[in-house]
User: Fold this.
Amino acid sequence: MKVKTNEDLVQQAMVIVCEKYKNTDFEKGILPWAYAVLDNVMRDDRKTGIRRNELFHEHIDTIKEIYQQEEAGDEAAGFRELDDEIMRALSRLSNKEKTILKLKLGGHTTEEIQKQLGLTRNAVYKYLSDGRKKLSRLLEKRGAL
Amino acid sequence: MKNPTKIEDLIQAAKRGDKMAEAEFFEKLFVRFLSIVTRKLKKCSILKNRINLDEKSREICQCAVDKVKALYPFNNPQWSLMSAMSVLQNVLDGFIIETLTDMAKKGDSKAENWLFAIIRKKLMERVKSKNWKEMEYEG
Assistant:
């Protein structure tokens, strides 16, 4: 999932500015209005990013590495070397969310997770979805971008 | 007592409450502003032959000096020559952008291109600024 760059966001704002400036009356001038357009573009992008768990996907490699190091019994190295913000965000997940996320990132199928934990398919999906959304919100609030 | 003539001496005297030094300082500030504004407007080729350069330069400088007086009286601890220059830059940018907007709205495509280039640059500065990253998401 592509995360928008600063250039993408400015370009999006510029498209709106180009389309609308001729028919807009600027109370305080065109530049404050253009800033407001950019602010709205960036707010929408953040909301969409959290809805699509884009912030989770940005950090997925780091999260996988954390779990791999834990599996290998090298927890101390994980804490030392990897992103503190992600570690803190992961610690905020419920036990079920952490377990299911770990199994999923470790390559287990939904069916295998179901059997291992004695859950329904929908329950597995729900824990996964809630965990991803929680991580995305926590990482965004803590400025891990 | 030696009469202060250098701008820095006038600033120090004005900060001590010398009203004559303050008045002389603002005259010198106007002259300094005028040289900066005239030079910058001459570089803005899109405005050539479209504005009365001398008249507009004076207008811009007077507006900037008035704003400096209003925003940064000498007893304001944030007063500095850099603050005054920053005010001038904002007033000058505002004038250029407003003029280009008027020209672009009337169908001048070259003015439109200049305007969009300036706005794009300003938006890039804003999107990279630290303040943006601290903006709260309410959702």
User: Anything to note?
Assistant: Residues 19-43 of chain B form the longest helix (25 residues). Confidence is low (pLDDT under 50) at residues 133-139 of chain B.
